[in-house]
Amino acid sequence: MLSSRGRRPRRPPAPRAPPRGLDTPPVLVGHSVGGFIAQHLLGQNLARAAVAICPGQIKGVKAVGPAQAKSAFAFLRNPGNTKRAVSLNPEQFRYAFANAVPQQESDELFDEWTIPSPARPLFQLALSNFAPHSPAKVDTGNQERGPLLLLSGKLDHTVPDVLTRSTHKQYRKSSAVTDYHRFDDRGHSLTVDHGWTELADHSLTWLDQRHIG
Fold first, then answer.
1. Bigger pLDDT: 84 vs 142
2. Is 188 left (phi over 0), alpha (psi -120 to 50) or beta?
3. Using CA atoms, how far apart are residues 78 and 80, in angstroms rounded to an integer?
4. pLDDT tens digits, residue range 2-13?
5. Tens-digit pLDDT profile for residues 148-193
6. Cα separation of 140 and 102, whole Å?
7. pLDDT exceeds 70 at position 34
8. How far is residue 211's CA from residue 213's CA, in Å, rounded to a whole number?
9. CA pair distance 203, 206, nearest whole angstrom
10. Three-state SS for 43?
11. Contact 50, 149 (CB under 8 A)
């Protein structure tokens, strides 16, 4: 499933200046909260292009469902978690990240990848629409930024596809390229599970189509 807000592939505009001492502007790739960060930096013209994978919801995105609420409960249930790192147990990880892979693979991913994570960014994203100066705000109207690709998994519980589609709509006032693609059989673990190469191949093909080497 693919949609685009650009009429034709075109060479992206260069950032106004090489960002913060880099020789060349980077291509940013971020997953979940990292997907929000990639959008935020792209909106500031600090990157040539960005791929935001199952991105955390930015300010203006209001769709929330029960699956997302259940996934985030371990982090958001206690306001005191804003000052803590929080760990998921195997059952919570299975539901929030690895629901689209077999149980054995979920257990292996849990053992290999899980670490305690700071909960503060999740509170900031979840409450962004109630904070006038939220750090989750992204310049979605920027006409001069580079191309953006939003990727989602239809089976994702943590960032349901409806959120990524709603994020895509936030860019409707910008003429800059904003593309969207959904993987129908993938969950939130899509960057590290057995199907990660499909995601990588799609992203590299998109970058090539947008003339980004």
1. 142
2. alpha
3. 5
4. 444 544 445 555
5. 999 999 999 999 999 999 999 999 999 999 999 999 999 999 999 9
6. 37
7. yes
8. 6
9. 5
10. helix
11. yes
Token pair of 23 as six digits: 């020789």
Nearest residue to 1 (alpha-carbon basis) of 131, 207, 206, 179 = 179
| Nearest Cα to Cα of residue 106 among 192, 34, 17, 9 | 192
d(CA 168, CA 112): 32
Residue 42 zone, left/alpha/beta (φ > 0; ψ -120 to 50; rest): alpha
The label of the residue with tokens 């955390």 reads 56
DSSP assignment, residue 29?
Answer: E
Please give the single-letter amino acid code of residue 196: W
User: Pairing between strand 117-118 and 85-86?
Assistant: antiparallel
Q: Which of 164, 170, 162, 169 is nearest to 140 (CA)?
A: 170
Q: And the tokens for 87?
A: 């760990």
pLDDT tens figures, 53-77: 999 989 888 766 677 778 877 777 7
- Report yes or no: 86 and 116 within 8 Å, Cβ to Cβ: yes
Cα–chain center distance at 112: 21
| Cα dist from 106 to 9, 66, 96, 184, whole Å | 38, 22, 11, 18
Per the structure block, which two tokens stand in for 121? 């960014």
The whole-angstrom separation of Cα 188 and Cα 171 is: 23
